[in-house]
Protein: DUF2256 domain-containing protein
Amino acid sequence: MAHHKPTLPHKTCPVCQRPFAWRKKWEKCWDEVKYCSERCRRSRDTGAPHA
Structure:
């Protein structure tokens, strides 16, 4: 029998414009999460997408 993940909440990263899903490590701070990765968080000030 296949294991199916429940539907998880998604957000769009303001730096790379890619969607990203909720992760267990963000369980207590999901409302504050804005960026999909540390790389996007660091490049937010430059405004230059890394993709």
Summary: The radius of gyration is 13 Å.
